[in-house]
Amino acid sequence: MSLGNLQLLEQKIDGLLARHEKVHHEKTELLSRLSERDLEHTVLLDRLRQYEQERNEMRQLLERLMSRFEGLDLQ
After folding, report:
1. pLDDT tens, position by position, 23-51
2. pLDDT at 72
3. Dihedrals φ, ψ of 72, to 5°?
């Protein structure tokens, strides 16, 4: 193997290592962003459940109020 071939091999290995490091860094960033999105998703689901519960409670209250009016003879 000549010196030129070894230098070319070294350049290719350096390029490969640089790409590997870049991909590894991007993967770490993406995993971090995914974790943040998962947390946001959980928070939003909890908020949605709370709103649905409040809506159901309000519906029940309105139905009770309406049934009280139905019992009155307003004519």
Report:
1. 999 999 999 999 999 999 999 999 999 99
2. 79
3. -85, 145
How far is CA 44 from each of CA 25, 50, 53, rounded to the nearest angstrom?
A: 29, 10, 14
Three-state DSSP state, 75: coil
Domain ranges of the chain: 1-68
Listing DSSP states for 35-67 in one string gives: HHHHHHHHHHHHHHHHHHHHHHHHHHHHHHHHH
Average pLDDT for residues 10-14, to the nearest whole number? 96
* Mean pLDDT taken over the chain: 94
Could you give the CA distance from residue 70 to residue 64 in angstroms, rounded to a whole number?
10
Q: How far is CA 9 from the centre of its chain?
A: 43
